[in-house]
Amino acid sequence: MTARIGVITFPGTLDDRDTQRAVRVAGAEAVPLWHRDKDLKQVDAVVLPGGFSYGDYLRAGAISRFSPVMETVIEQAKAGMPVLGICNGFQVLTETHLLPGAMLRNNHLHFICRDQKLRVENAETSWTVDYTSGQEISIPLKNIDGRYVADDRTFDMLEAEGRVAFRYLDGNPNGSLRDIAGITNEAGNVVGLMPHPEHAVEPLIGTGRTDGLGFFTSILKKLVNA
């Protein structure tokens, strides 16, 4: 029986279908989850996809954080369930405090959409075991509130504990401090990043490469070997 990966849809989510497809391409079963439903339908892991949930009103991810489904996600994540937040999903994870820090408007104040080179800094999380530390990958990036910030104490903690998962290469696209593109929690089951791996899983679409597929094969491998 294959792993079941839940993909949450909030009002304003726009990458849920792409994420479901990426899950299927990796060989797992994609399970749609609705934001108003606390039931996670016995999934093995959850993805919070990209988009503009609730129109990014108040603050990106601030309203979604209070959706009924997030009560269960927070509870299960603290119990060890793997959770991946992509772009808006990363913003939601910071709002829930499952991941530290916050996301602010890009330093150039413009929406940006481009292929983005990243360096894998931590290849030991539930979502990165199919990569190698130091590996360089390229996946699409698209955001306007993508500038990751935190205080110096938090940054020093993330660096010391190896919790920086990805770093921007060849130019920082949004002003994220210390070039951080993605981070993980202490246990390594919760990962958030701004770029979109679900758009780079098949050679005919996205970047024309499959550099993002590793996220989804990683969690499949992690669950099968659990």
TrEMBL record:
Top-level taxon of the source organism: Bacteria
Keyword Cell wall biogenesis/degradation found: no
GO cellular component: cytoplasm
Catalytic activity, reaction form: L-glutamine + H2O = L-glutamate + NH4(+); N(2)-formyl-N(1)-(5-phospho-beta-D-ribosyl)glycinamide + L-glutamine + ATP + H2O = 2-formamido-N(1)-(5-O-phospho-beta-D-ribosyl)acetamidine + L-glutamate + ADP + phosphate + H(+)
InterPro entries: Class_I_gatase-like (IPR029062), PRibForGlyAmidine_synth_PurQ (IPR010075)
Coiled coil (UniProt feature): none
Active site: C87 (nucleophile), H196, E198
Chief location category: cytoplasm
EC number in record: 6.3.5.3, 3.5.1.2
Database matches in Pfam families: GATase_5
GO MF entries: ATP binding; glutaminase activity; phosphoribosylformylglycinamidine synthase activity
Keyword Ligase carried by entry: yes
Its biological purpose: Part of the phosphoribosylformylglycinamidine synthase complex involved in the purines biosynthetic pathway. Catalyzes the ATP-dependent conversion of formylglycinamide ribonucleotide (FGAR) and glutamine to yield formylglycinamidine ribonucleotide (FGAM) and glutamate. The FGAM synthase complex is composed of three subunits. PurQ produces an ammonia molecule by converting glutamine to glutamate. PurL transfers the ammonia molecule to FGAR to form FGAM in an ATP-dependent manner.
Quaternary structure and partners: Part of the FGAM synthase complex composed of 1 PurL, 1 PurQ and 2 PurS subunits.
Name of the protein: Phosphoribosylformylglycinamidine synthase subunit PurQ
